[in-house]
Design goal:
This protein is of the alpha/beta class. The chain contains 13 helices and ten strands. The strands form two sheets. The protein has an eight-stranded parallel barrel, surrounded by six helices. The chain has a two-stranded antiparallel ribbon with strand order 8-9. The two termini are 31 Å apart.
């Protein structure tokens, strides 16, 4: 059977969950990656109310959809971030933000991630995708310079905060998949390695692979897949179009999405520089059997056009593997 193609509903939480399920079914998605946001999933209610969980599952089943992953990106961002400021208040629920005291926010965010693992197991999801935040992202330019001990302390801080979270993931039989992404503790190839080493390569912690964040950094997404094959727990299909014309830079000059002076911008799958066909083949080669999740982010088109367009592109490049090698007839001697 061909690989399942799901829709990440993070960009759709302004719409009721039922409406998004209806759209996803009409377009032909196999399932959803559902965020803890809007009315798409209330983890506090789900933890205590079995009837709510049944209703939630019934909504999916009524639309012939499944769930493989729960997303809690926004809350995860607050676990390790420093500083915690007005940006986070816009990301977080009042319950997690509380009085805004930074350490209190971090602790409440960590507790919600633990709860998310428990709810994911209850709902039958295998993975929680998300962010970690980072104490040391603010030093990415390395100027003013900092001592190596400051960077080492950032990884230690991540380990101290995430190991107790991962204990709950272990107990629930659910994995956490970090989206390697700017502003996280792992944002490129080498910081991913350092992050895994910081937690002694715990199996509960893996990667939500998304090529769009690697394209503009000149990281080869296929090489990343092969080198971290045993840690690929979930996959986003999202594309990036670069426009480095001698003026536009990689850091994008504080300009909004789709501005002509940006060096890159996200586009619907198949419309950018990503070799998505090649990446999907690589996923087959490394033995990844999970779904791919369409994350629609394209400021140049309406999402009602973009999501089905991305799905069509993905379907055209998700293949059934052959039952035998194309040259197997040479073995018939």
């Amino acid at each position: 059977m061909s690989r399942h193609v799901n829709l990440f509903t993070g960009q759709w939480v302004d719409l009721p969950f039922e409406e998004v399920c209806t759209l996803a079914q009409q377009w032909g998605f196999d399932g959803l990656e559902v965020p803890v946001a809007g009315d798409h999933l209330d983890v506090y209610r789900a933890a205590e109310d079995d009837a709510y969980c049944r209703q939630w599952r019934d909504t999916l089943e009524r639309h012939n959809l499944d769930v493989y992953a729960i997303s809690n990106h926004s809350t995860g961002q607050a676990v390790c971030d420093d500083p915690i400021d007005f940006r986070h208040q816009g990301l977080l629920t009042d319950r997690v933000w509380g009085d805004g005291d930074p350490e209190g926010v971090r602790q409440r965010a960590a507790e919600e991630l633990k709860l998310t693992a428990q709810v994911a197991a209850k709902l039958g999801a295998k993975t929680v995708t998300g962010f970690t935040g980072s104490k040391i992202w603010k030093y990415v330019a390395m100027y003013p310079p900092v001592d190596p001990e400051v960077i080492a302390d950032g990884y230690e801080d991540f380990a101290n905060r995430f190991n107790p979270i991962l204990d709950v993931f272990d107990s629930e039989g659910v994995t956490f998949a970090l989206e390697v992404h700017p502003s996280e503790i792992a944002y490129d190839y080498w910081t991913t390695r350092a992050t895994l080493e910081a937690i002694d390569n715990r199996e509960a912690f893996g990667i939500n692979w998304d090529p769009s964040h690697m394209i503009w950094q000149d990281i080869d997404p296929a090489v990343f897949l092969t080198d971290y094959a045993d840690r690929i727990y979930h996959c986003h299909i999202k594309d990036t179009k670069t426009h480095f014309d001698g003026r536009n830079g990689r850091l994008s000059s504080h300009l909004p999405w789709n501005h002509p002076h940006r060096g890159w911008t996200f586009v619907s799958a198949g419309l950018g520089d990503a070799d998505i066909d090649g990446y999907l083949r690589t996923l087959d080669q490394i033995g990844y059997t999970g779904p791919v999740s369409i994350e629609w982010e394209d400021s140049g088109m309406d999402r009602l056009n973009g999501a089905p367009l991305a799905l069509k592109y993905a379907r055209e490049h998700v293949y059934d593997l052959p039952e035998a090698a194309f040259d197997s007839h040479f073995d018939n001697r």
